[in-house]
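Contributing: when you submit paired examples, paste them exactly as shown. First protein:
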Amino acid sequence: MVTLADVPVPVGAAMPRPEAFLRLVDIAKQFGRFTALHGISLEVFKGEFICCVGPSGCGKTTLLRIIAGLDAQTTGQVFQAGAEISALPAARRDFGIVFQSYALFPNLTVARNVAFGIENRGLARLRVRERVAELLDLVGLAEQADKFPAQLSGGQQQRVALARALAPAPSLLLLDEPLSALDAQVRARLRGEIRALQRRLGVTTVMVTHDQEEALTMADRIVVMAQGRIDQIGTPEQVYRHPATPFVAEFLGRMNVLPGRRLPGDRVAVGDVTLHCAAGACEGTTETVTLCIRPEDIAIGRASGDCANMVSARVERLEFMGSYYTAHLAPRGIAAPLEADLSAQAVRDLALRPGEWVEAALPRDRLRVFFGWPR
């Protein structure tokens, strides 16, 4: 028997694209006259961790519910493992789901909560007990099996909900803002635990979240949604460093946004200041442009080095953020304010104080150029 692995691939030839495990084709959803989703198409590959992010009302939870069969799409198709499941009810789909509220049964013990989804599947009682013990050990709750949900912390309840979702060994795991009800420290710890568990099990996962940090730290790819549409799909680094739209630029992380006017030679006039951009960045059809630069990409004082884009700016205030400071700057000749993130050591070395004038560098390779002024 000859497999794909046995067929030699010519040097320089592209590898065949793997078939998507989950495929959404032109998914639209209407609630009366309101259109929640506009022709969403998306491919998720086996073992991948996808995060759908966007502001409230962008349609991300509606999309997750359509994948699960909890809501029916108005038009479009859903495929899983090569089979169309568009019309299948949720009970006949192969997935596990963790809701924002966890939805644990308060009158059942931790062990019974985890066993709930597999007790009626014809498994022997011994096998059910073994599976429950295996999962509770996996999520670090083996010693909590006989407790009730009210006796657990929020983080522990989240792990019980995750174990219950994984009990039937689904090929697809759906997570609906599972960490939003937890405090910051627990959330940071659990997102690492969930990601490690997902990698260990290799289960294809789609998570909905409004938390940018969760998406950036957990996802293989991020799907950024706005107003029922997908604005950009890419790796965390791609969508953060190379946002496709001004919305993505501002939504993922913090961004300085400057309105400008295109000039010849890859230059942009921002107020009374001329800034140089990367080669070809200003090739567009409109005279008005939007320049974006991350606060961490702005250098101040001695750290600015040799840069074509030097701007004099007054330090309005310094905001202490723990491991770093945010300097709020009023640049000379530019109406829009700037924010620059500086390490605590840099602030001490520069002896920065509010009211001082500094030289700020805006590196041309860090400036993102968008055409038009959308705001």
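Second protein:
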Amino acid sequence: MSTHINAKDGEIAELVLLPGDPLRAKFIAENFLENAVCYNEVRGMLGFTGTYNGKKVSVQGTGMGQPSISIYVNELFQFYNVQKAIRIGTCGSINKDIALRDVILAQGACSDSGINTQRFNGLHFAPIADFELLMNAYEAAKKLGIKANVGNCVSSDLFYDTKENWKLWAEYNAMGVEMEAAELYTLAAKFNRKALAILTVSDLILLGGATTAEERQLTFTNMMKIALEAITK
């Protein structure tokens, strides 16, 4: 039984986009999906289902951080038979060649989180994207004329990282820091589902610079287009 998603059987599609911001979910539903209907308002974490390219697609807000996305993805996979999930979110660039508003396709997700340390009893797990979704997204980006950078991201538990641990990840060529992908990829592996994270650079951690909250909520449409094309292919 789902605790945090108040949807009836059949109201959520097998294909789901996962923005952290519920208002981004609303924006996608209103601007990209046909005949979108809201199925969830519990805790303000909006969820909608409509169609795209003739296929049923849902978009569900997840909140910030791995514990939050873990709740929603567990429920989507276990109780609503979601088969493919693409996170669409923002990240901070830690690579000098990746600029504001650039798109990153996260093929893997490093992490400083203790979640998998607990889950695997101190062993290490490598959270990676589904290859088919990754390829679909890369091909969709090329078709749309959008540059897509493919590489590792970092899923950190700390938004305000006073120790600047990101510098160590940067030495190993990680592209951007976000807060959710590692848990999404781990749960997809556990439940044998397909998952991908598509990220838009909202901040330049390495070089300095940032976008506004309004931009993050209402623009960044390139990653939305890529995700919708990839998940419905």
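If you have annotations for the second protein, write them as plain sentences, like these:
Helices lie at 22-31, 66-79, 115-119, 131-144, 166-171, 181-191, 213-218, 221-232.
Strands lie at 15-18, 34-40, 47-52, 55-60, 84-93, 103-111, 148-155, 176-178, 194-204.
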